[in-house]
Hints:
It comes from Hohenbuehelia grisea. Keywords: Aromatic hydrocarbons catabolism, Hydrolase. By secondary structure, this protein is of the alpha/beta class. It is built from 16 helices and 9 strands. Helix 1 (12-23) packs antiparallel against helix 2, helix 5 packs across helix 6 (180-192) and helix 11 (268-281) crosses helix 12. It is globular. It starts with a strand and ends in a 17-residue tail after the last helix.
Amino acid sequence: MTATPYTITVPDEKLKQLRAKLDLTTLPDELDDAGWEYGAPLAEVKRLVEYWKDGYDWRKHEADLNNELPQFIQSITVEGHGALDIHYVHKTSTVVSAIPLLFVHGWPGSIIEARKILPLLTAASPDHPSFHVVAFSLPGYGFSEAPTKKGFRLQQYAEVGHKLMLALGYNEYVTQGGDWGALITRKISLDYGQKHVKAWHTNMPIFGQPPHPLYQPVSFISNALTPYTAGEKTSIQRRQWFRQIGSGYFAEQSTQPQTLGYSLADSPAGLLAWIYEKLVNWTDEYPWTDDEVLTWISIYWFSRAGPAASVRIYFEITQAGESTTASPKVPIGLSYFPREIGGVPRQWNRNGANVVFEGEHERGGHFAAFERPEDLVGDLHKMFGKGGRAFGAVPGKTGYD
Length: 401
């Protein structure tokens, strides 16, 4: 399998079409003093729509992405689904023993989530390990080809990531992910560890289950008698908020994605509002610039398959009823950010899992790689660095010269 260098080049015709659609935008009315309580505020969406149409320079940001991200296309054959062109970023370190790391994004993210952590992870230093980083656009996202058949689930996304790493010569590697990327990298660790996958790290540690009083009595009693920490209380409150107020999108995307897809594919303003709400509500007061927001959204609008393809993952995985509780046997690292959209008591995540690292942070939300890149990378440095319990997890790859 041969990789082909890739450069993002959106046709001029698509830029003209976007401006034309934005020019015809019809915005809804809004109640007085609605704020964020009813969703994305009218004033904010109106400002972004107008700037997207008349001020935002996609060509500048397109060039920046191409300059910063070494991009490629690789054909990956997925069992039952044929060959798919997979778009990915592959940034290598100058360190000979750098650790191969597969980074996987989720929704509503893309490979842009890896943008800030790439230079930090690949940097050579005597004080911390270095990594060779691979970040791919999930099938149906960004510039990857979308599946055309039903049943593209966790197993298939995991197969794509694993086969890509093997195609690049990384027979043994570690993984990192949040959102769907957390479930996909967990599945990769379950299916391909311990032979290929040597460790798993996630910034969305929501998979733990309460200990069973009969089968895990010691853990059950310890959990019952141990007061929750401040961080655990925050995580639990955040989980309750998400279930009560923030999960409406999940119900639609996991049951009727095609119906929603017409709006996402036809209305740039609709796509903007749908995703912008998540960028604000799921982060920890991150100071989004309009250019950051619109670059994020533009990757969806200009995606190879169109933005509707990205939400089908919710239907396929939810309807399949795939388990999200099994723990890989490989060493596991967990990073806790207070504004993550879901959380469970720390003991639940340790229950029956090979947890070798935990990092607790005072700031940060769902998009940790973008919001708090230094914190996330710092945790990976500690987990895989000298003195860390995952040091040397990949044989011969310590990350140090």
